[in-house]
Amino acid sequence: MSGGAGDGWGSRRGAGGAVLEPSMAAEEERIAKAALAELPDDGVVVLDAGAVTERFAAHLPVGHGYTVITNSVPVAMELAARTDVTLHLMGGRLHRKAGATLPEARELDGLSADVAFVVPGGVSFDRGLTSRDPAEGSGKKAIMNVARRVVALADHTRIGDDRMSRFAALQEVDCLITDTGLHTEVADRLRARVPRLLRV
Predict the structure, then answer these.
(1) 150 touches 172 (CB < 8 A)
(2) Which of 2, 99, 121, 160 has the fewest Cβ atoms within 10 Å of its own Cβ atom?
(3) Phi, psi of 151 (to 5 degrees)
(4) Within 13 Å, how many C-alpha atoms sit on residue 99's CB side?
(5) What is the pTM assigned to this prediction?
(6) Residue 120 to residue 165: CA distance in whole angstroms
(7) Which helix (H) or strand (E) holds 50?
(8) % of the chain residues with pLDDT over 70
(9) Nearest Cα residue to 154 out of 126, 177, 124
(10) pLDDT greater than 80 at residue 132
(11) Is 119 helix (H, G, I), strand (E, B) or coil?
């Protein structure tokens, strides 16, 4: 799964198995903390798999009674002991490297969520949100389809990266959160294509 689970807070393998430098951890942490502001006061939240959503889950506010739906095994493990969270782990084929399942649309059929946090493998200016294989992309699209709002979380290394499988147009997300490593001119170009862009 794009932006797959890391092996701690230092160097880890991310999307495509590439080794990410420790400095990316700080950027992902900022993105995760900024994403908390997109949460409703209570309700149903969908968390896609990714190192940034693992960090997000670790900071999920206490006492709001959230229902969390996720395809990420590490996110589920992070939240499993939380008595104030109702947790649902999606089924589907296990992507072992990412520690995530690849959900199918029929599994989520009939569900409704307040907000979905999606981690694209790449963000293409021409094609939108992309992933490295169709099954992964279909799962991310299914996650988006059940939510009234969609927030995409993508560090600056993913912006301009066009993966094989397109799963959504840029206009289909309500907000895209990235980091200040994204050059200003690139951010301006992206801002013209998404409803709301945050650089943190």
Answers:
(1) yes
(2) 160
(3) -120, 120
(4) 19
(5) 0.86
(6) 10
(7) none
(8) 86
(9) 177
(10) yes
(11) coil
